[in-house]
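Quick one before lunch.
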Amino acid sequence: MTSPSRSKAWQKLASHYLNLHQNGTTIAKLFKTDKDRFAHYQSSLEGVFFDYSKNLADAQTMQLLRKLAEEAGLAEAISAMYAGAKINVTEDRPALHVALRTPLENADPSFNAAVASTLKQMEAFVARVHSGAWTGYSGKAIADVVNIGIGGSDLGPAMVTEALQRWQLPQLSTHFVSNVDPAHMRSTLAKLNPETTLFVIASKSFNTLETHQNAALARRWYLENGGDEAQIAQHFVAVSANVDKAKAFGIAQENIFPLWDWVGGRYSLWSAIGLPIALSVGMEQFRSLLKGARIADEHFRDTPFDDNIPVIMGLLSVWYSGFVGATSQAILPYSQELHLFPSFLQQLEMESLGKSVEVDGNRLLVPSGPIVWGSAGTNGQHSFHQLLHQGTHYIPADFIGIVKTAFAEDADQHAHLLANCFSQSQALMQGKSQRQAFTELLEQGKEEGPAYELAKHKVIPGNKPSNTLLLDELSPQTLGSLIAIYEHKVFVESVIWHINAFDQWGVELGKQLGETLYGALTSEQDCAQFDSSTNGLINHCRNNNA
Ligand code: F6P
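Model of the 6-O-phosphono-beta-D-fructofuranose complex:
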């Protein structure tokens, strides 16, 4: 892996972008010069179709980007990841989320064994809960599962459970509590009965303030509402890499599902962190999710770069942030069931790529990970698409569509959803000129003068790039493939930028300061030891919260 700023391909891409700009190249013109552009800029894997023709990129762009990948040692980095090399260099660990769903051929067999035995432990537990063999203190079957976790111990499981709600088993409801704000846990508990509620404490470190606070609150609620302390073990299980801390909290050893330091939190939904998914939809569907990810893993490992979906997506993202000036990326799933996907991707992308130091400790001299945001379509069209179409920011977008709706009787309505998905990417690409707007207004009967003035406000610049991913249907398998595609896309970007996608030192300072300020907020004395803003805010709360 080498630094991008010392790469020849990087310099060539910089001049290439200048040429495109000076020649007035637009995406619309690229379609005019290549009648088969759609056919030339697409790829697929089982259940997923990828169209990247609406990008500001021609054959030379893609060729130079692949050269950049070659100079960055992408192929070697992929092999190293799959072989269990310690590529998470600052924590001296492998990054082996692929092992959670794809048996490794070149890594130590102990990884595969650990994964297989944990899946067995999950399967046995899920079967007992579903059959009613696992009961609460009063002998009743579990009716509600509450996952207590945050970040990677919440976002992935919550997003997948929401997306697969059509497979949710009738006997169980699943809830996710993450925020330390007591309102989150209290509003959830208000609906629940301690006799039939199972808490899953999900925390890789078992050191996370929010999760500790919420787990303690849940335990108080259980005991204060009739829960039998002698049988509390029936109501609390844990998923953690820190078995000692989980046991210290009071979780029975046999109710702790292992996690390992070679799985990053934001890459962990495939592990026992996915227990709420398996409890919600069953182990068969959970294994289907894993199969989908395996299909993407094998595609990423074995497909030449010019057809490799995560490689193409990652290289295009580097192109837009490094050369075209994009600072954010919109994720637009045209699927209500995928409405949590942008929030999930925010952690996966921004906690992995929000870095400014290269793996060798040198400052990164090029822009790294963009701001990732978005929401389900068509709702975004009535919220922020105005900015996408007429704003001053250059924001590449990923559209995600579902070819076949699960609601066959509403296929016609689903056609409206797809039509909007495609029309939005078309509008972003082709825009509308002032002349077109002026002509339209005249045809609507507007007087020339007012039409001329109003037309200036109706110009859509266009030439805005997008990718479109189409899932044959939304199923556990295609969802698994979609998520894994993005995991690998993020890895590609990290290799090109020569950064570590698997650590997150940036979150430490906030946590440290938080503990100090908690002490100040809850102390007897007024606060005077910090800056005047922090002192003022703390004292305002102390004085108004006596
Ligand atoms: O945000 C920091 C972080 O460590 C994430 O990387 C992680 O997913 C989250 O907090 C929760 O950590 P844990 O699973 O250890 O409670």
